[in-house]
Every structure is written in structure tokens, then in C-alpha cells.
């Protein structure tokens, strides 16, 4: 383990052997998806050939421009500039991190807003589109796409604005829409999504480096697929609008995404980092700690509290010294309540009253922010005892979706700060001897 842990309050949380093991497994997951170190492992310069996974592109005598969007953009910009150095002509990283986190000389960092789109994001997107639009056939555009990119790539269509998009997204989140449904709409209300960046870069060659935060790792839905030829249509988006009863948008606000094959003929997309990287590292660490470790799925979905109970039931039926590992993205239909806390803390809160001695379940956000200042939380008999001492009810807080308030009070939340990584949520479920 590294001297500096990602979970800042690990020492205070590690009050039992089971908790300590879970925190070590979590740390291994965070280390595996560290954006800068992962890019250093998976991207290299072989003479005049830039290699990313199995893709090889020449950089000899070419102008090279970098575009990064999403929660990993700033860290990726620093990593790519470290690999290519003066070969980079220029670039823009549009991230949700503060600019000081981007220590680059040739790539400019722009701070956008998240989770809500804004005029700031629209301005940053416009600058990216303008930079790409002047590229020529001999140029190379390296486009790093990561989670959060959909929100950042706000380029409104029709009568819509980034503010009205914020309202639409709020309605979808409250109704528990899936990320695929949400991003289907997003593709058709922005000129930059759904292949829009690939079109803007045409006729240059494009190397698309994708960091997945979407269950199933469908590149066309990660950050709404700005470098991928889209297969959804305006009709699909309109049907989704109707199905969820969205107001404030009409079919005239929707646009078809670029479909001409010429825009994608010289685009090479590769999945660079995903939750599998974290899960494999977590499995190795769990095995080192003496557990029979299994990656159950990297595509966990569904309502958070329902998925949580399924995870606990599976753990309870497992043999002693078992570790079950999950990745994915659940949903929380908040309805009329609007408490603080995200999918991971809601997941943990749903288990506090049911978890038994010798069991621990820890869901956590890979980006370090579970719709709050916490990354996730621990559900075990220790957190249940903390609630009893405080005289607070997990059920009451769960009903009002106040998971952050609950775990902040009990002291069982994970504190990481912004990680600069983003590969969906991750879950560790351990059973003792």
C-alpha cells in the first residue's frame, strides 16, 4: 500500500479487522484507477508511434492537439503531456477540478460545473469545438473522454439553454432514469455529444481514449459518446421524453447526431480504463488478505436500496471468509424528497439495520464524491451501534434520502476528496470467519 492513502480517514474507520481489510481492498481499487498512473501503464511512445492498448498512430511531423472532457481530463492532460512533451501543439482540458490540479504547459485547463450544466460549460465546449474545427487532414486529435463529460459538453439546441437542460436532468434523476436513457436525450440536445467532437475534428485523425463510468462500457454512452458514431435517433429521444413525462422540451429542440461515415473513418476509440481495472486489483488484495474473492459483476444496476439487499442476501449465503466485489451504477428515485447523499451512501444506509455480526458492505464512488463531500459509507454492526448511541433511525433517514446526514453523524462515511478518477461505483462485501 502507498504511504498516502486515498481514504483520508481510514485510520479512524479501521476499528475492526473486517473494516481494516475492506479499507485495504478499497485502497487497491483506487490505486489501480489513478488516472495518471493508469495512462502511464497503458499509453506509451514507441519511437514515432503512439501506442494506446492495441492502437498505434504515427506522431511523426504532425500537429497534435489534446482535448480532455470529464472528471479525469486534468489528470489525463498532465499524463499525456508527460508522454508527448513538446510534440503537443496545444489543447484544452475541460474538467470539474480546480485549475491548479492541472500542471501543464501546453494544454489549458478550464474549470466547468458538475453535476449541473451551465453557461461556463457551454463556453468551454465552444472553445473546444472552435479549436477542433481548424484541424487539417494531417493533424492528430487526442480526445480523452471520461465520466462527467456529458454535463461539461453543453452545446444547446433549439430553444434550450444549459439552464433548461439542468431542469430536464433534475426531472430525470428524480424519476430514477438510467444513464442510457439520460444520455440518449443528452446526445440529441448538444452539438458536441453523440459524435459531435469527431465531426468537429474532421478531417483530422482522432485517437479517442475512453475512461468508462457506465455499466457495460458501451463507448457510445460514456460522456454521451462525443467521438463515437451514434445509433440513437431523434425518435428515440422523443420517446424517452414522452415516457418520463418531461416538460419544457419539444421535438423541435432535438437534433439528429452526425451519421456520415466520413466523420468516423479515421477515428480510433479504445477503452483505456474501466471498473474492471479496480475490481481486478481489489480481488488480488482480497485474496492476499485470505478471502475467497469473486467479482460478481461490473454492471450492477437497479434501485440502490433493492440492489443493496440482494448483495447482502448473497453475502449471507456465502461461505466464511468470502469477498464479493461489484462495480456499476445504481439509481435513486428521490421523489418529493431532496436529501443530501448519493447512490453509494443510500446503498449502505439501506443495510444498516440488517447487516449482521461478521459482515461488512462498503459502497464507494470512484470519483470520491457521492453527491456530497463523502465518497461512500460503511454498513456493519459498528455503524448500526453508532446510530443506536445517537438515537437516530436508519429507516427514517433512508425514507428522506438523507444518507449523507446519517453517516456524517455516525462517523462512518469515507472521506477521499476529489480523486481525479471515475469508473462508476464500486462495492466491497466481506464475510468473516
Helix count, per DSSP?
A: 16
Terminal CA distance: 24 Å
Strand-residue fraction?
15-25%
Helix percentage = 25-40%
CATH level 3 topology of the largest domain: Rossmann fold
List the helices and strands and how they pair.
Elements: H1 10-13, H2 17-32, H3 35-42, E1 43-46, E2 49-52, E3 55-58, E4 64-69, H4 73-84, E5 88-95, E6 107-111, H5 119-133, E7 140-145, H6 149-152, H7 162-174, H8 179-187, H9 196-201, E8 205-211, H10 234-243, E9 267-273, H11 275-288, E10 292-300, H12 304-316, E11 322-328, H13 343-349, E12 359-365, E13 376-377, H14 381-390, H15 394-399, H16 403-410, E14 413-414, E15 425-431
Helix pairs in contact: 2-11, 3-4, 12-13, 13-16, 14-16
Descriptive account of the structure:
The structure is a single chain. The chain is α/β, with parallel strands linked by helices. The chain has two domains: 10-32 and 275-431, MOFRL domain (glycerate kinase, domain 1, 3-Layer(aba) Sandwich), CATH 3.40.1480.10; 35-273, Glycerate kinase, MOFRL-like N-terminal domain (Rossmann fold, 3-Layer(aba) Sandwich), CATH 3.40.50. The protein contains 16 helices and 15 strands. The chain has helices at residues 10-13, 17-32, 35-42, 73-84, 119-133, 149-152, 162-174, 179-187, 196-201, 234-243, 275-288, 304-316, 343-349, 381-390, 394-399, 403-410, and strands at 43-46, 49-52, 55-58, 64-69, 88-95, 107-111, 140-145, 205-211, 267-273, 292-300, 322-328, 359-365, 376-377, 413-414, 425-431. Strands 6-5-4-7-8-9 form a six-stranded parallel sheet, with helices on both faces. Helix 12 links the parallel strand 10 and strand 11. It is globular, with a radius of gyration of 22 Å. The two termini are 24 Å apart.
Amino acid at each position: 500500500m502507498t504511504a498516502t492513502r486515498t481514504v483520508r480517514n481510514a485510520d479512524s474507520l479501521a476499528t475492526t479487522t473486517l473494516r481494516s481489510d475492506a479499507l485495504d481492498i478499497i485502497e487497491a481499487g483506487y490505486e489501480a484507477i489513478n488516472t495518471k498512473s493508469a495512462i502511464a501503464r497503458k499509453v506509451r511512445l514507441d519511437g514515432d508511434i503512439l501506442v494506446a492498448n492495441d492502437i498505434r498512430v504515427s506522431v511523426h511531423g504532425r500537429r497534435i492537439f489534446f482535448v480532455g472532457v470529464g472528471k479525469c481530463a486534468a489528470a489525463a492532460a498532465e499524463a499525456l503531456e508527460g508522454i508527448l512533451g513538446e510534440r503537443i501543439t496545444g489543447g484544452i482540458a475541460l474538467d470539474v477540478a480546480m485549475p491548479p490540479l492541472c500542471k501543464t504547459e501546453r494544454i489549458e485547463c478550464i474549470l466547468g460545473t458538475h453535476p449541473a450544466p451551465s453557461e461556463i460549460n457551454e463556453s468551454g465546449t465552444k472553445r473546444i469545438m472552435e479549436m477542433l474545427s481548424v484541424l487539417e487532414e494531417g493533424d492528430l486529435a487526442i480526445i480523452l473522454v471520461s465520466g462527467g463529460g456529458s454535463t461539461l459538453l453543453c452545446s444547446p439546441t433549439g430553444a434550450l439553454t444549459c439552464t433548461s437542460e439542468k431542469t430536464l436532468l433534475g426531472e430525470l434523476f428524480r424519476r430514477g432514469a438510467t444513464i442510457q436513457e439520460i444520455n440518449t436525450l443528452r446526445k440529441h440536445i448538444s452539438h458536441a455529444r453523440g459524435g459531435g467532437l469527431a465531426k468537429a475534428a474532421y478531417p483530422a485523425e482522432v485517437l479517442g481514449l475512453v475512461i468508462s463510468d457506465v455499466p457495460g462500457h458501451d463507448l457510445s454512452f460514456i460522456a454521451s459518446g462525443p467521438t463515437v458514431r451514434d445509433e440513437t435517433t431523434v425518435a428515440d429521444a422523443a420517446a424517452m421524453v414522452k415516457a418520463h413525462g418531461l416538460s419544457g422540451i419539444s421535438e423541435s429542440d432535438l437534433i439528429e447526431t452526425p451519421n456520415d461515415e466520413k466523420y468516423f473513418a479515421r477515428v480510433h476509440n479504445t477503452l483505456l480504463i474501466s471498473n474492471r481495472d479496480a475490481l481486478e486489483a481489489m480481488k488480488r488484495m482480497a485474496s492476499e488478505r485470505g478471502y475467497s474473492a469473486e467479482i460478481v459483476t461490473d454492471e450492477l444496476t437497479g434501485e440502490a436500496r433493492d440492489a443493496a439487499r440482494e448483495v447482502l442476501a448473497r453475502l449471507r449465503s456465502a461461505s466464511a471468509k468470502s469477498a464479493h466485489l461489484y462495480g456499476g451504477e445504481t439509481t435513486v428515485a428521490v421523489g418529493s424528497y431532496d436529501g443530501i447523499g448519493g447512490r453509494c451512501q443510500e446503498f449502505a444506509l439501506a443495510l444498516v439495520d440488517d447487516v449482521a455480526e461478521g459482515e461488512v458492505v462498503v459502497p464507494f464512488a470512484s470519483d470520491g464524491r457521492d453527491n456530497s463531500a463523502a465518497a461512500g459509507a460503511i454498513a456493519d454492526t459498528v455503524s448500526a451501534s453508532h446510530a443506536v448511541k445517537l438515537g437516530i433511525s436508519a429507516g427514517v433517514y433512508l425514507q428522506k434520502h438523507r444518507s449523507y446526514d446519517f453517516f456524517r453523524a455516525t462517523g462512518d462515511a469515507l472521506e477521499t476528496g476529489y480523486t481525479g478518477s471515475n469508473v462508476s461505483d464500486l462495492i466491497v462485501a466481506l464475510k468473516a470467519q
